[in-house]
C-alpha cells in the first residue's frame, strides 16, 4: 500500500499493489460487475461483490476508483480523494 498527498491539488491517493495472478484486461469488466468473477483457472471462493462494493463506497465518499491489472503480474487499485483544506480553527466548534 502506498499513500501520497498532493497538497497543491488537495488530493490524497492510496494505491494497493499485489503480485498475485492478476486479471486479464478483457476480464476487468467482469470483476467490476456485481457477482462477476473472472475465469482464472483457479477455484474462486468469493462472491464477486468485493471490488464493485469497494468502488461504490469510494464513489459515495467523492473519490475515484481505478483498477489496472495484468495476468501473472498482479493488480494495482488506485483510489483518489479530493479534499478541502481545513485549519484547526475550522474544526473546533465552541
TrEMBL record:
Gene Ontology cellular component terms for the protein in this record: plasma membrane
Keyword Iron-sulfur: no
Every Histidine kinase domain range: 1-85
Listed transmembrane segments: none
Alphabetized UniProt keyword annotations: Kinase, Transferase
Enzymatic reactions: ATP + protein L-histidine = ADP + protein N-phospho-L-histidine
Signal peptide region: none
InterPro entries in the cross-refs: HATPase_C_sf, HATPase_dom, His_kinase_dom, Sig_transdc_His_kin-like_C
Entries under PROSITE patterns matching the protein: HIS_KIN
Record-level Gene Ontology MF annotations: histidine phosphotransfer kinase activity; phosphorelay sensor kinase activity
Enzyme Commission number(s) of this protein: 2.7.13.3
Pfam name, any one: HATPase_c
Presence of keyword Membrane: no
This protein's name: histidine kinase
Originating species: Trichonephila clavata (Joro spider)
Amino acid at each position: 500500500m502506498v499513500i501520497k498527498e498532493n497538497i497543491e491539488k488537495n488530493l490524497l491517493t492510496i494505491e494497493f499493489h499485489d503480485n498475485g495472478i492478476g486479471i486479464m484486461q478483457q476480464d476487468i469488466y467482469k470483476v467490476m460487475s456485481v457477482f462477476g468473477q473472472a475465469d482464472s483457472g483457479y477455484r474462486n471462493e468469493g462472491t464477486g461483490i468485493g471490488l464493485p462494493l469497494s468502488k461504490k463506497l469510494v464513489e459515495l465518499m467523492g473519490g475515484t476508483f481505478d483498477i489496472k491489472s495484468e495476468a501473472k503480474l498482479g493488480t494495482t487499485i488506485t483510489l483518489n480523494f479530493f479534499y478541502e483544506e481545513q485549519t484547526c480553527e475550522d474544526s473546533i466548534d465552541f
